Known about the structure:
The chain is mainly α. It has helices spanning 2-8, 12-25, 30-42, 46-59, 64-76, 80-96, 102-114, 118-131, 136-148, 152-165, 172-182. The chain has eleven helices and no strands. 51% of the residues are buried.
Amino acid sequence: EEGVAAAQSGNHQAAVTAFENAAVAMPTCADCFFNVGVSQQQMKNSEAAEAAFKKAIELRPSYPEAYNALAALYTADKKMDLAAAASAKSAELSVASGGGNADSLYSAGVGLWNANKFAEAGSTFEAAVKADPNHADSHFMLGKVNLNLGKLKEAAGEFDAYLKLQPNGKNAAEAKTTFEALKPLLK
């Protein structure tokens, strides 16, 4: 609780200390190491964050959030191959655990997209949409993936779904322009 309070107040060094103390008391506490990683990442300590996330995964191999955090860390550090691998594992674990969280799957899909692994990204965004059919950003990215893969009809449908969910969203202009360009191909 002390670590959570410190992290929420922005005192990430105090959070790291509290979570590390908790990990000493409970050596198998994967969440303790995960939270150390989050705070280390907030303090821009990439190596320490990576080590903490890996320790959390060592303690709980089926921890999709830890893989997702690693993917975000690797993406920020421009290590796209590592980001893609961590994203893929996060997505695999999220789906295996009963569908997964749409936000987590979306993040994993973005990691795969950034690594130019379009088919894998598409599967991950599809899983996100299955987990939450109203996850607009997943529809948008699935549209981009389908466009990239030459699946124009599917792309148009996803851009249309995004616009119905977020007509004024951050990607609305791009979605509308792309949808309008694809509309004649649908006839």
